[in-house]
Amino acid sequence: MRHNVGLRKLGRTSAHRRALLRNLATDLFRHERLKTTQPKARELRPVAERLITLARRDDLHARRQVLRYISDKDVVKKLFDTLAPRFAGRPGGYTRTLKLGPRPGDGADMAIVELIGSEPVFKKQKEERKARRDRKEKARTKAEEKAAAAEGGQAGESEQGEAGEKKRKKKGEG
Predict the structure, then answer these.
(1) 3-state SS assignment for residue 112
(2) pLDDT confidence bin for 117, thresholds 50/70/90
(3) Of 40-44, 92-96, 102-106, 118-122, which gets the smallest average pLDDT?
(4) Measured distance CA(135)–CA(127) in Å, rounded
(5) Domain-by-domain residue ranges, the chain?
(6) What angle do CA 37, 2, 44 make, to 5 degrees?
(7) In this structure, what DSSP letter does residue 6 have?
(8) pLDDT at residue 164 greater than cutoff 70
(9) At residue 120, does pLDDT exceed 90?
(10) Nearest 5°: phi and psi at 96?
(11) How many angstroms separate the CA atoms of 42 and 30, rounded?
């Protein structure tokens, strides 16, 4: 009986499994998120966290230990220069795994593995924020124009004209 022995074999020889995890870790640090199967994601997590913990030490021996595992020097530089300082105050738990559901072709359970703090900001959210900001600004200028018109009568109309000119210049109508 193999009670609690070993790790997921992932249907590969030990050398192939080691190469797979090296490549996954390299891609995770390069892109800060990747899409893979759940078993691979579960095996990747301790490997990636161990490498980030080494990078947090930031000494020559730690750098050589990481280089022994990740052969891409640019990725190692990124790991030590940008990712390790981001996690300096965090005691572990540097990765997040999000379940996606089955893959259409073979039904394998898929997952996204990402580093904490590298969540994408989607364009749609940015556009909604910009539209909301524009609506608020438009309402504010309208309220200012009404207040000026109610206040001044004839003088208010000239101020309103100036405000309209400013608004047109701002929009680029000139």
Answers:
(1) strand
(2) confident
(3) 118-122
(4) 12
(5) 14-115, 123-171
(6) 25
(7) S
(8) no
(9) no
(10) -130, 140
(11) 19
With contact defined as beta carbons under 8 Å apart, do 29 and 79 qualify? yes
- Residue 72: CB atoms within 10 A of its CB come to 16
- Alpha carbon of 4 to those of 11, 18, 43: distances in Å? 18, 20, 15
Q: Which fold has domain 14-115?
A: 50s Ribosomal Protein L17; Chain: A, (3.90.1030)
Question: Given this model, what pLDDT does residue 151 score?
Answer: 82
Q: What is the pTM of this model?
A: 0.66
> Over 80: is that where the pLDDT of 71 sits?
yes
Q: At what angle do helices 38-57 and 60-69 cross, to 10 degrees?
A: 160
Distances (CA, A) of 83 to 51, 75, 77, 95, 97: 11, 10, 9, 12, 18
| pLDDT surpassing 70 at residue 169 | no
Tokens representing residue 58 in the block: 């930031």
- What type of residue is 66? V
Return the structure tokens found at 130.
């910009």
